[in-house]
Every structure is written in structure tokens, then in C-alpha cells.
Amino acid sequence: MDKRKVIIIASIIVIIVIALIIFGIVKYNTRIIDVSGAKHSVTIIENTDFYRKAKLMDVKIHKELPIGTNVYVLEDFVDEETEVAWSKVVIDNKIGYVQTAALGYYKASEDEKVLMVDLSKFNKGKNFDTGGEMGAFLINNNITYVYIRAGGRGYGEEGNFYTDTEFKTWADECEFLDIPFGVYFLDEALNSEEIDEEIEFMEKFLKDNEYKNNILPIALDIEKHDGGRAEDYWEERAILVSELVQKMESKDMKVIVYSNAKVASEFLSTVPTKFWLAYYLDNVIKIPTYWYSELEDQEATENEELMSKMIGWQFTDFGVGRVVNRQVDVSLIYKDFYK
């Protein structure tokens, strides 16, 4: 065989080898790792290292992971030599290792009254830059339930519907972490026709946004608003809200009403549903060990019908000192009602 043929054959072999190597690299980098049996978690420590191997020394690190990084955990184990606990994880479709101490999981409180926060687009940037950061906050602060604003009817004369632009951000994170949540909707209906429109809006919203962890009752937000289109209808509001509640429940849509305690006592206590009431305490630095009905300076606490229906108390819109360390709405909720 002449020299020219040898060179041609060798070149072909080199090209084939290079092509196979490139194909293998591409295939490896584009593979989809099965995480169907994995546990969901979230990193809760700043600058957690993502290792290529479960060793602390002389091992290349993929990258540093910021707080709130979503993680799929494939396996937990302890290095017998160093006694360091490790987790084999998947992050961005890459397998690696993190120290187990860096991972946090959702765990519902076993207390009779548990913590709940509510979120909307107004929490984006002000309290949390990402869904993962919010998820880490929920875990670190022992939050058991979450309500997320779905949308509502606008306050203006036309009463146009709107949806919350950050609903999916917060809902996706609750879904990833298996945190039970619910949606709340701002009602401003003035008549039966508009009540039917609101129900249709909510039905479509829930159909378009299906989540297995969206299991709490829908909260109807009934409040006084500056410029609210229903401000002249408060004497009739209980009748309208009762119609809304009854129509929703006839469609198997579980409902509660959220409102200011004073407003609810004055206008809404006859509505046939449970109530989540807001009354903010001053300078809250710890979780109340008492219930709203025990306050003696509140007229609403003397409304026995309302107090018998109360299952939630939003006691601050400014966090709880170092206990709940973000400026968010925080509520105490009777766990057995949601259970």
C-alpha cells in the first residue's frame, strides 16, 4: 500500500474517532436525568459548594450555589472515613454532590396553630428576587401554608379582571417543595351577573393553572378600598358575598372569606363561610401565644357569630422580628381546619 493511501486511511480513522468523541460529549451533555423518584429540596446556606465527587479536598467544584437553589436529591449517605453527610443531587440536569447539612425540606408544623404567609406580585423585588429565595424563606421560617394572589376585579368603574403577574413564580416553587397553598381573589361584584362573571374567571384561572398542591380553599378578599367600586354597597355586601360563596360551593369550589376584622364584624359576619381576619399588632417581635378573640379592646371580638367562624388571624404585615425575617403578611391558622 503506497504512502498516500495510508495517509488517507489514517485521516479517515482520525475523523471518525473525533466525530465519535464529539457525538459522545454532545449526547452526555444533552442527556435527560430521570428525577421522577427524587426528593425535592432547596439549598438554604449561602455559597454552598456543588462538588463533582463526595469529597472535600482535591476535588473540582462545579460552582457555588446561592440560597434558594432548587435541588433534586437522588441519595443521602455518610462518608465512613470523614463522617461527613452527603447528598447526591441533580441541579440543572447535572449530577453532583452537596453536603446534606446545606439542604432544607418542607415540614408542616405539628402545632395547633401554624404560620401562613400570603404573596402577590408586590413581594417580588421587595422581599424575594426569585422563587427559590422565597422557598428557602418558607423552609427557614417554618411556614406551613401559603396563599397566592390569583387576581381579581379591578376597583374602577369598569371593574376589569386582572391576574397576578407573579402567581406562577410563587406557585411553581410551592409545587416543587410540596408546600400546600391556596389562591385568593379580590371580589368587587355589584350584582348577580358580575358574581357569575367572577366565578367564570376563577374557574378558567384554576383550569389554566393546575397544581397538585393547590389544595386550600379559595380565599375571597373582601375589603374596603380607596376608590373601590363596591364602596357604596357595604350594607348589601353580605348578601352579594353570600350569593358568591353559595354559587361557588355549588360548583364544589371550597371557599373562605378574608377581610379586616372590623369590616367583617360590621358587614359580613352573616356570610355562611369561615373567616380569615386581619388585625395588625404593633411592633411584633414574636408569634402571639393567644388568639385574636382574646383581645379585649376590639369590638369584633364581641361578635360571637364571627368569632365562631374565624379560622385564621393575619396579625402583621411586617414580618415578626427575627422570627419571620422578611416584611411579609403573616397569619396564624388553625391547622385542623386545613388538615
Q: Helices, strands, pairings?
A:
Elements: H1 3-29, E1 39-43, E2 48-51, E3 61-65, E4 70-78, E5 85-91, E6 94-99, E7 103-104, E8 113-119, H2 131-140, E9 143-153, E10 161-163, H3 167-177, E11 181-186, H4 192-208, E12 218-221, H5 234-250, E13 255-260, H6 261-268, E14 274-278, H7 304-309, E15 310-316, E16 329-334, H8 335-338
Parallel strand pairs: 8-9, 9-11, 11-12, 12-13, 13-14, 14-15
Antiparallel strand pairs: 1-4, 1-7, 2-3, 4-5, 5-6, 8-16, 9-10, 15-16
Q: What is the CATH topology classification name of the largest domain?
A: TIM Barrel
CATH architecture of the largest domain: Alpha-Beta Barrel
Number of strands: 16
Low-confidence stretches: none
Shape: elongated
**In angstroms, what separates the terminal alpha carbons?**
83 Å
Mean pLDDT: 91
Please trace the helix and strand order, writing H or E for each element. HEEEEEEEEHEEHEHEHEHEHEEH
CATH C-level of the largest domain:
Alpha Beta
Structure description:
This protein has two domains: 66 residues, SH3 Domains (SH3 type barrels, Roll); 226 residues, TIM Barrel (Alpha-Beta Barrel), CATH 3.20.20.80. It has eight helices and 16 strands. The protein is elongated and about 105 Å long. The mean pLDDT is 91.
